Amino acid sequence: MRQRKVGPEDARSWLLVNGARTDLFDTARDSRADQVVLDIEDAVDPAHKAEARAGVVEWLSRGDRSAWVRINDRSTESWDDDVAKLAGVPGLLGVMLAKTEAAEQVTETFDRLGGSTPVLALVESALGIEEAVSIARARGAFRLAFGSGDYRRDTGTSADDLAMAYPRSRLVLASRIGGLPGPIDGPTVSSSHPVLREQTAVTVSLGLTGKLCLDPEQTPVINEVISPTPSDVAWARDFLADFEARGRVIRDGSDKPRLGRARKIERLAQTFGVEPA
């Protein structure tokens, strides 16, 4: 049974699917992933990119099928082919631009796709992290995502939470400055649900609001951890009810931040279908 999808501005789980495996596309679409990304970049051998791209375009052009597509980075010849073939495809929700390192790469991609297709900038290097604010402010930028694996390869950083806190926090701050939704964290490779749950909790604690994933079985865990808890929702609704009952009067300096938090929790609870405990 197909799951109700959460819009990309609030999407928690972003499921990456090998763009050469068209047999997996329908399963991914019907999974619990908030958004699906068909990957024609790192997941596909360079010798087979044209074939994979054609398969993605054909699938997106039939019926009510829709997805995001991870395209190749601006410095490659494949980027030009990607934007040329994907422009105007009916089911294209947006593109994830690999290895984004400059604002103009986002804007040029946006313009080549017709000026209305959102660009999710995947930041995967030291330079990309340094330029994160300008990338977030670029015309066409929709949301930032962290390519944690390539970032570690580029910088020699370990996967330790402390070592990875700076680039994640940098993307959180850049998203706020650029007026974008919260950024999307990199994937957890482990198949262990306790490990995934722990790492997703770190994602939330640092202010990121989504997570890339490689397996449909990871999506329920990610969705649960990133969503408000039932007890959070109960607190928010109680606070809002009390606020209304006292005539919306602000009593002290702590009321405004609590009101903002309560309203945010209530909106997300409605979006994700979370009921109070």
Could you explain the architecture of this structure?
The protein is built from twelve helices and eight strands. It is an alpha/beta fold and 277 residues long. It has an eight-stranded parallel sheet.
Quickly describe the structure.
It is built from twelve helices and eight strands. It is an alpha/beta fold and 277 residues long.
Distance between the termini: 26 Å
The count of domains is 2
Tell how many strands the DSSP assignment holds.
8
Element order, helices and strands?
Answer: EHEHEHEHEHHEHHEHEHHH
Shape: globular
Indicate the CATH class of the largest domain: Alpha Beta
Q: Report the helical percentage.
A: 40-55%
Record the strand order, biggest sheet. 6-5-4-3-2-1-8-7
Query: What would CATH call the architecture of the largest domain?
Result: Alpha-Beta Barrel
Total number of helices:
12
CATH topology grouping of the largest domain: TIM Barrel
Largest β-sheet summary: 8 strands, parallel
The SS-based structural class is alpha/beta
CATH-level-4 superfamily name of the largest domain: Phosphoenolpyruvate-binding domains
Stretches where pLDDT falls below 50 for ≥5 residues?
Answer: none
Mean pLDDT equals 95
Strand content: 5-15%
